[in-house]
Amino acid sequence: MNLQTRVLAGYGVGLTLLIGVLIWAVANLVSVGKAGEAILRENYKSILAAENMIEAIERQDSAILLLMLNYEDEALSQFHENENGFLQWLGRAKDNITIEGEGEIIQTIDAGYSAYLRNFTELCRIRDTDENSAGGFYHETTLPSFKSVRDACIRLREANQNAMFTSSRRAGDISRRAIWSTVAVAFAALGAGLVFSLLMSRRLVRPITALTDATEALALGIYNTQVPTDGSDELGQLGYAFNMMARKLGEYNRLNVEKVIAEKRRGDAVLRSIDDGVVLVDDKFRVLTMNPPAARILNAASQTVEGRHFLEVVGNNALFELIRQAVESGRTPTVSDGKEILSFGEGESVRHYTFAVTPVLSDSGGIFGVVLLLRDVTRLKELDRMKSEFVMAASHELKTPLQSLGMSVELLLEDAPKRLTETERELLTAANEELQRLKSLVNDLLSLSRIESGKAQMAFDSVPVAALIDKAIGAFKVQADRQEVELARISGDDTIRARADAGRITWVLTNLISNALRHVERGGQVRISVERTGQWIQVCVADNGEGIPLEYQSRIFEKFVQIPGQKNLGGSGLGLAICRQIIRAHMGTIWVESKPGEGSAFTFTLPVAA
User: Fold this and answer.
1) For the chain, what are the domain ranges?
2) Distance CA 29, CA 478 (A)
3) What 3-state class would DSSP assign to 356?
4) Which three-class secondary structure state does DSSP give residue 584?
5) DSSP code, position 371
6) What is the CATH number assigned to the segment(s) 274-376?
7) Read out DSSP for 412-436?
């Protein structure tokens, strides 16, 4: 019997045992799954309906108290809103009667709630005629009716909870029986497999051990290693092929070792001559080589880092994560917006570097390693800082003369009908409009410079995102109605709270809504949505307007970028740049998705409040 037949026989036995255990385990899992599914299908919907009915009628009772305190509009709105919710959940409970006595409880709830609504109507009538009698009617009639309905809802919830507990215990019994039976079958299969494996291993271990020892010797550079080739089965053929490979490797090593050494020396010389820092890491994240500029940047000795783990040498987790992504994907990783620069040092000695992480691929697509390139941009960073400070100083200095000019022009406009001609009044009006536009531009420049330089103070707090959106929508409601544009927030979770500066985020929302209204036609739509994804909140302002050309989508958040041919209406081109800086200050990201002619969707993220 050759080796292939013996191995196939061994695998056949093991596979048969594995299939048996698998079939038994699947059958047990199916039975457990059915038991769990029955629990959820029969009782969870009714429990959820009872909980929501209790919440709705309690909020209605709170609305009656508000009514008694003369908050009539708010009370009636809250009462009827929760009335709809109560009736919806009552309907769902009626559609999910699964246990004995549940139908009678639901009938009790239905009849009691109808009486409660009648009592509320009577209470409103009494309050309109005699406020002194309304309190007595509430305590004697309305309140007992409310408690009756709430108690019935509680009984409905408890009945389904008890049924769920009973089903859960039954599912637990099934699960325990399934576990023990599966363990017993698995141990039986394991014992049979071990016995068979021991018999097979005695036939295979001797030649494989000899081949392993020879392979280790070959890895150490002992190229004259040979293995015995007794027998004509596959192991004997493998031994013969190994001996031939060892001889050829010895010949190849003698011929090429000097050539390899020369190539390595040339490569090291090229790396040392490069001004930028270069670090080569293998697929196990060990440092293969590091040129002197990189060693100076990372404060390491280039002669002592080879073979050490990248984190041990550099100690930068964010940079290591990018290298890990490059090794695993074989592609250059994407760097988050605003995190493309590394800084080393403190105080006046700090240096800034841009970096690039590039995987090195073989012809077959495998990963040899990753190259990290560090380029010094400290001077460019300093020039950018000086530019921002100059813009801030110039904007600040322009505010005072612009204020004086504005006041002078406004005084002239007030006196214009008396002394100026029609042409002079038109020129003065045009000058005032341009002056206001210039003041807006200066204010935008000043705000942007403060945020970029980190001098703008952020008042972070836990804020309700839905309330900020509603506030921003309210500021544009009149304009939207005038343009016949549907401006609304898509309903979602109103309890989501973000860690943010409420004023700054409201400014971002108003800017995005203003841009959307500017580029949407009559009858169009502007909708704002908010959702939570993990530890981040995504807010999206979407419209069905003219959209953004593809060539501008990557530049739309840059300063002074405006799309030719679109309705900018005197904008400065700084609004979206300020939005990006505000979101960056919140550790978030902002981006746009758009198709020309189909609309745009601007989305930004905020961290969830703790």
Assistant:
1) 3-191, 221-271, 274-376, 382-453, 460-607
2) 60
3) strand
4) helix
5) E
6) 3.30.450.20
7) HHHHHHHH--HHHHHHHHHHHHHHH
Dist. CA 400–CA 396, nearest whole Å: 8
Give me the amino acid identity at 544.
N
Q: Model pTM?
A: 0.41
Question: What is the spatial distance between Cα 141 and Cα 126, in angstroms, rounded to a whole number?
Answer: 12
Q: How far apart are alpha carbons 50 and 46 in whole angstroms?
A: 6
Nearest Cα to 20, choosing from 173, 200, 193?
193
Question: For the domain 3-191, what is the CATH superfamily, name and number?
Answer: Aspartate receptor, ligand-binding domain (1.20.120.30)
CATH of 382-453, one of 3.40.1010.20, 1.10.287.130, 3.30.450.20, 1.10.630.10: 1.10.287.130
86 vs 76: CA distance, rounded Å:
15
- Cα dist. 100→106, 113, 162 in Å? 12, 22, 12
CATH class assigned to 460-607:
alpha beta
Task: Output the pLDDT for position 562.
Answer: 77
* Closest of 166, 146, 170, 147 to residue 158, by C-alpha: 166
CA gap 459, 503 in Å, rounded: 8
Q: Is 153 a residue whose pLDDT tops 60? A: yes
Q: What is the pLDDT of residue 275?
A: 65
Residue found by looking up tokens 């989501």 in the block: 496
Q: Hey, what are 16's tokens?
A: 């048969």
Q: Cα 587 to chain center, whole Å?
A: 12
Backbone angles phi, psi at 208, to 5 degrees: -70, -40
Compare 192 and 567 and report the one with higher pLDDT: 192
CA distance linking residue 371 with residue 310, whole number of Å: 12
* Tens digit of each residue's pLDDT (9 = 90 or more) over 415-463: 666 666 777 767 777 776 666 666 666 666 666 666 666 666 778 999 9
Q: What is the 3-state secondary structure (H, E, C) of 51-81?
A: HHHHHHHHHHHHHHHHHHCCCHHHHHHHHHH
Q: Which two tokens stand for residue 19?
A: 């299939």
- Residue 462: which residues within 8 A CB-CB, separation 6 or more? 497, 498, 499, 609, 610
Alpha helices (H) in 95-142, listed in sequence order: 102-129, 131-137
Region 119-128 average pLDDT? 86
Residue 6 pLDDT grade (very low, low, confident, very high; cuts 50, 70, 90): low
Q: Are 519 and 546 in contact (CB under 8 A)?
A: yes
> CA–CA separation, 207 vs 558, rounded Å?
69
CA atoms within 13 A on the CB side of 216: 5
> 557: Cβ–Cβ under 8 A, 6 or more apart, which residues?
576, 577, 579, 580, 590, 592
Q: How long a stretch of residues is the chain?
A: 610
Strands 486-489 and 460-464: unpaired
Query: For position 399, what pLDDT does the model report?
Result: 57
Q: What are the DSSP calls for 423-490, one per residue?
A: HHHHHHHHHHHHHHHHHHHHHHHHHHHHHHHT-SPP-EEEEEHHHHHHHHHHHTHHHHHHHT-EEEEP
Per-residue model confidence as pLDDT tens digits over 175-194: 788 788 788 878 887 887 77
Q: In degrees rounded to 5, what are phi and psi of residue 110? A: -60, -50
CA distances from 138 to 119, 129, 133, 146, 158 (A): 8, 15, 9, 10, 28
